[in-house]
Write a structure and sequence with these properties.
CATH superfamily of chain A: Tetratricopeptide repeat domain
Shape of chain B: elongated
Largest sheet of chain B: none
Largest interface: A-B, 25 and 24 residues
Number of domains of chain A: 1
Oligomer: heterodimer
Radius of gyration of chain B: 24 Å
Structural class of chain A: mainly alpha
Shape of chain A: globular
Number of strands of chain A: 0
CATH superfamily of the largest domain in chain B: Tetratricopeptide repeat domain
CATH class of chain A: Mainly Alpha
CATH class of the largest domain in chain B: Mainly Alpha
Structural class of chain B: mainly alpha
CATH architecture of chain A: Alpha Horseshoe
Largest sheet of chain A: none
Distance between the termini of chain B: 76 Å
Strand content of chain A: under 5%
Number of domains of chain B: 2
Strand content of chain B: under 5%
Helix content of chain B: over 70%
Helix content of chain A: over 70%
Chain lengths: 105, 204
């Protein structure tokens, strides 16, 4: 990855970080755009997927968050922050399923 | 995806290392982090996360150069990890400050090592280059000092200190002409031409 390109993508990531509490939807757009840039230049970033996963977790989009966390673990299986988030997402998914099952009954 | 008992065992060791680090036994944590890094490499992974954790432990032990080395590996593994970037910039700044410390003797043998670390990482600033020029002069490597001083004036053409350093080196080499030329450049640096060629104060 050329230095110039890294700096450009980093700007998007930093923008996403500063937007994440005030405007999480906009932050998501920035992060997805940064991920697209990464793919275009043949780079992968576990931290970028983790940042998106944490954002989606806060937005209660559990399945999408889990998908991103699995990307992190694929790229860096030793990332304990991602593994903790995966556990939390698993618990939330199970409780969501239980609530859904109860509402059907 | 890497799974299985081997991974679980490594993760358990990693968690233990984190506990040890947080509990104050940083040496034990370093040992385990290093084992995990080696094992991960054998499995074909360069984990930015583990390098970053290891760098934190090394930093806490005052092993700044080693911490920087680990951060370089972490940035290489994941150049978009912002916490890693911040830590990298922080340690680089502390290394630069250590190199340019006025209390450090000009011929301190740590200078080339610190300088090389910073240059390799693209983090050497003017002060770092000048510290290396001073080291080369102090250790009688005048040709090396001259080459570096010339390069520094190319990198920082409007830095008076760069031209002054070149003048000193040229003078030490007996190159009076180059020394005078560098002195002239140093004198001219920072002197701004008046706007529109007009000097004096504008009056209404």
């Amino acid at each position: 990855m050329s230095r110039q390109t890294v700096e450009q993508v980093l700007l998007k990531v930093q923008a996403a970080q500063s937007l994440s509490s005030e405007d999480p939807e906009q932050a998501e757009l920035f992060l997805r755009s940064a991920l697209k840039d990464c793919v275009a230049i043949g780079q992968s970033s576990a931290s970028l997927h983790l940042q998106l996963a944490e954002l989606l977790y806060r937005l209660r989009r559990t399945r999408e968050a889990l998908q991103e966390v699995l990307e992190v673990v694929e790229l860096d299986p030793f990332n304990l922050a991602a593994l903790s988030l995966r556990q939390a997402l698993g618990r939330r998914l199970r409780s969501e399923r239980a609530v859904a099952a109860r509402s059907i009954i | 995806m890497l799974t299985g008992t081997k991974l679980e065992a490594l993760l358990a060791r990693l968690r233990r290392a984190l506990d040890e680090r947080n509990g104050g036994d940083v040496e034990a944590a370093e040992k385990v982090f290093r084992e995990v890094v080696a094992e991960a490499q054998r499995l074909g992974f360069a984990s930015a996360y583990v390098h970053y954790m290891l760098s934190g432990a090394l930093d806490r032990m005052g092993k700044l150069e080693m911490a920087f080395d680990e951060l370089k590996k972490a940035v290489r593994a994941d150049p978009l990890a912002i916490p890693v970037r911040h830590a990298f910039q922080d340690v680089a700044a502390r290394l630069r400050a250590a190199l340019a410390d006025p209390a450090r003797a000009a011929d301190d043998e740590a200078i080339p090592r610190l300088y090389t670390l910073l240059v390799e990482a693209g983090e050497a600033d003017l002060e770092a280059h000048l510290a290396m020029v001073r080291f080369a002069v102090a250790t009688a490597q005048l040709e090396r000092a001259r080459a570096l001083a010339e390069a520094v004036t190319t990198l920082f053409p409007v830095a008076r200190e760069a031209w002054e350093a070149l003048a000193r080196v040229a003078r030490a080499q007996g190159d009076v002409g180059r020394a005078a030329a560098a002195d002239a450049e140093a004198a001219g640096v920072g002197v701004q031409a008046p706007l529109f060629g007009v000097t004096g104060k504008a009056l209404a």
